[in-house]
Amino acid sequence: xxxVRDAFLTPEYGPAPESDREAxxxxxxxxxxxGHYVGGEWAAGEGRLQESRCPADGRLLARFRYGTAAxxxxxxxxxxxALEPWREADxxxxxxxxxxxxxxxxxxxxxxxxLESLDxxxxxxxxxxxxxxxxxxxxxxxxxxxxxxxxxxxxxxxxGVAGQIIPWNFPLLMLxxxxxxxxAAGCTVVLKPAEHTxxxxxxxxxVADRAGLPPGVLNIVTGxxxxxxxxxxxxGVDKVAFTGSTEVGREIRAATAGSGKxxxxxxxxxxxxxxxxxxDLDAAVEGVVDGIWLNQGQVCCAGSRLLVQESxxxxxxxxxxxxxxxxxxxxxxxxxxxxxxxxxxxxxxRIEGYLESGRAxxxxxWQPSRPMPDEGCFLPPTLCTGAPPSSAIATEEVxxxxxxxxxxxxxxxxxxxxxxxxxxLAASVWTEDVNLALDVAxxxxxxTIWINCTNLFDAASGFGGYRESGFGREGxxxxxxxxxxxVVARTTARPQAEGTTETAEAAEPLEAASSGGGSPGxxxxxxxxxxxxxxxARPDGGYSLVVRDxxxxxxxxxxxxxxxxxxxxxxxxxxxxxxxxATSGHVRAQVLYYVAENLAARAGEFAETLxxxxxxxxxxxxSEVDAAVRGLFTFAAWADKHDGRVHxxxxxxxxxxxxxxVGTVAIRCGDRAxxxxxxxxxxxxxxxxxxxxLLAPERxxxxxxxLVQVLETSDVPPGVVNVLSGxxxxxxPALAAHDDVDQLWDLAGDPLSAEAERLSAGNLKxxxxxxxxxVDWKALTSRECEFVLRQATRVKNVWVPYGA
Amino acid sequence: xxxxxxxxxxxxxxxxxxxxxxxxxxxxVRRVRANRSxxxxxxxxxxxxxxxxxxxxxxxxLRAITVTDLTTLAGDDxxxxxxxxxxxxxxxxxxxxxxxxGIEPGxxxxxxxxxxxxxVPAAVxxxxxxGIPVAAVSTGFPAGLSPMATxxxxxxESVDAGAAEVDVVxxxxxxxxxxxxxxxxxxxxxxxxxxxxHVKVILGTGELGTLATVGKAAIVxxxxxxxxxxxxxxxxxxxxxxxxxxxxxxxxxxxxxxTGFRVGLKAAGGIGTAxxxxxxxxxxxxxLGNAWLGxxxxxxxxxxxxxxxxxxxxxxxxxxxxxxxxHSLG
Lengths: 804, 330
Known about the structure:
The complex is a heterodimer of chains A (804) and B (330).
Chain A: H1 2-9, H2 21-29, E1 33-34, E2 36-38, E3 41-43, E4 49-53, E5 60-65, H3 69-88, H4 91-107, H5 109-120, H6 124-152, E6 156-158, E7 161-165, H7 171-185, E8 188-192, H8 199-210, E9 218-220, H9 225-232, E10 239-243, H10 246-255, E11 262-266, E12 272-275, H11 281-292, E13 305-309, H12 313-324, H13 345-360, E14 364-366, E15 382-385, H14 392-395, E16 402-408, H15 411-419, E17 426-430, H16 434-443, E18 448-451, E19 470-471, H17 476-480, E20 484-486, H18 496-506, E21 530-532, E22 535-537, E23 544-548, E24 554-559, H19 563-582, H20 585-601, H21 603-610, H22 618-638, E25 645-647, E26 653-661, E27 664-668, H23 676-687, E28 691-695, H24 702-712, E29 721-724, H25 728-737, E30 743-746, H26 751-759, E31 766-769, H27 782-792, E32 793-801
Parallel strand pairs in A: 1-5, 7-8, 7-10, 8-9, 10-11, 12-13, 12-17, 13-16, 15-16, 17-18, 18-32, 27-28, 27-30, 28-29, 30-31
Antiparallel strand pairs in A: 2-3, 4-5, 6-20, 11-19, 14-15, 21-22, 23-24, 25-26, 26-32
Chain B: H1 26-30, H2 36-49, H3 54-66, E1 68-71, H4 79-90, H5 95-101, E2 112-115, H6 120-126, E3 134-137, H7 148-160, E4 165-169, H8 172-176, H9 180-194, E5 198-202, H10 211-223, E6 228-230, H11 242-259, E7 264-268, H12 274-287, E8 298-302, H13 305-318
Parallel strand pairs in B: 1-2, 1-8, 2-3, 3-4, 4-5, 5-6, 6-7, 7-8
Helix pairs in contact in B: 2-11, 3-12, 3-13, 4-6, 7-9, 9-10, 10-11, 11-12
């Protein structure tokens, strides 16, 4: 009993290992070799065998297969076969399955958490207290959405077969984030877990099996990036959901361009952790611990950039270093471990490479003196100070336990530094001053803002990025939309084929004005110009194009815009967008009403012009002007009504789901409605506070350019709307590739759209391609309005825990 | 600190000196901030972050005994009742269990016995020769609203009667009204009246409204010369909670950081199980360090806690779950 006496005299923790017996038995039960789960059965597959080892001690856990294209084929076929009955099933039926999965996860929760810690290396405290409970919560919450889907998402249906690719940092939790909403919405799933961490997904397949999930509704194919690529590009997949690196996200974006697959990407980050001098500094330091040393910093939303107000910098860093000395790095199954193992050698090398480059760049790298385990993939918590702002360690996602500290002087500077990144996944803000907190939260460009907290997650609150951190949300109502699509009821009126036919014509380039098009022969020669930064602008190139009317006569000449004009228009939009975004909905509504008023005053003239458009008739022209006026009124009305929500999370806090403007929206207009198809989407984007660069319809850009005169007289602030015309083949790629365009609405929906989607991968801007049938700009329904409003906004969730 | 061989992670020149207090520094008071949700998350996560099992747990529970102020504060206390409690303080655990655990009988004993003034002489007599101090609750305990002269006289009488420690209560109204000068003067007067007796300043945290007020009151009490800051009288509607303990621990750390003086923390009220005691020990270890983990700087005021600890110790020795009636009443 000397150990009792030692502990009595010097209270230290001693080992407190969690038993791995059940996990070992489960692995042995499967003979430590796993195949794929396809169509409700286990299939050995053909791919090569791969070992899964525990990063903390190197022990062999199991062998599994790298799925081949043929394995993916079989899984997608199984999912397709299961789709119709699952999608058509009553929501309550799906709810029962999800509920059963939640219950079963709960009953086997410790097995899941031990297995997760063994496989990934994360501390049991995290897998037990965070990963697994949150995964369970996700299935409960989405059992609810399944139950309510028919009523709450009326007019929408399941997106189809979902191909889901998840990372190794939160294997089961990311599975839950993907699988639960997909199944709730009525999608069937092919999921590929990360190659380092397949085990809990395979155990989950057993759970789904026991829950009686119909064969093929959930399929799991293990493998690496090649397996993932086969899945993402598979023609039988309607929806691709990916969580992982920005680099791979870009590849998926480019690879799926033009496929019509809907896409959600949750990618990397370099999230700011902002500490003001008005913060509870000890709480903030504890926040840093949760922010960057959770899961060894292998967290996409890790608070890896510590921004501290200069007046308290020394104080905060002193407290932080003292706190770091108490962090225990050790075996993940020890219940007193704060930080477990890095997922594998490769990742460890990568992190150490960043530390090396940081040192080379002149940064100070500090690590606590506490002893580390002798073997295994471990790295101590690391504080990096004095790194040049442009250095790799200060700007790139390290994905390890490394926090980089910088200082700021004022709230404005804090916001500037926070936003000085390509990413925008999350941010944490620490202050006891509610004015300051609520001032800063909307100003930081990130999908989640945690006030006086960090790394809190809940199924009721959407999670996802801005900028190169990706798009789409997971969790909550906003997350459900990712797995739904509008039911297209008017297919007979506007068949998809119409779009393609029209496109084929539209793709013919207009003639250059010098090539004998001749004068339009109007009473007074008229020069239509583009509109950039509030000024009528001649095209940079100095060329014009001839527009022909419906009977093929030369009708007008329009500017031939090029990439320089795109540059200028985007620049103007950038200058105007912050102010417009900060303008109240009430004021934006007045501007849009005024546009409508001035358009109505010139209705006859616009109708007259529209009668000249290809495919137009007199009656249709008048009604299109009326539709444009109505559309302007509709979105003027919505300017101050597209409210956010307050999510119900199980913590004592408010989660404000704010609908924020996306930023600069480039709108490529189609020829289907040369006026309504211009004015109404423009109004939608403006109503929510976006700045717009609008590319006029290709074949008949005249009405769009005429609209400039209406906009000019309607108090639209300079730069908020910019109107270009020109050959879409030239202009669209420049818009799609532009890094300062936040979103592209491609309303023409033609083969060029695929190129636009491919080029959007550069800055991962959101792209909405209307391939026909979703929105009728001449007769908007309320559902279409709501759909468009969601395109015009993105949800930012601001977590505000409270308590005195 | 002869009872604690713990290593001080950050020794300072003043560390072993009794806190003399400092002038009132209102800037430091105003800088105190305490975020309730963050404090709750910290204490909740701590339970999952640290685990003490098997032999270590038995050792920690024995250590918990050594920081326990065995307390009886009832209207019907009598000398006989207090004598029994003092006997328990001297020999809190059955001899056979201690032997089995490798602990000498004199090593595991309570930190103090805490009683009302009237029972001080009985306690002093019962503890004679043991070295266990008697603590008296004082200053119009529990409300603390008697006239100042009466409260000071009460302290002096208890000290004269042999109390080596005095648990005083602050006028909560002073803290609630932000009258930090008033609070400082009150505690300084208590301290002076105590003379060589150590003063534990009960903040009545359950009545202070916010954690920030708790933190400010604690800092003021330390500046005024408190040897301990103590959570509760045990009579407030809300007793010692871990978030309050966290705020007090951080205030103590801040005070030590700025002045170099160590002040103790006493948690009182509602701590009745071995599990509770372990949670408090872990909190103190994590926020203040091993130097605080002995009777000079940490106390738990309790009456029923000991019985639960004894049961857990017996379980450790025999492997069987124990029953209350197998252990002597305090």
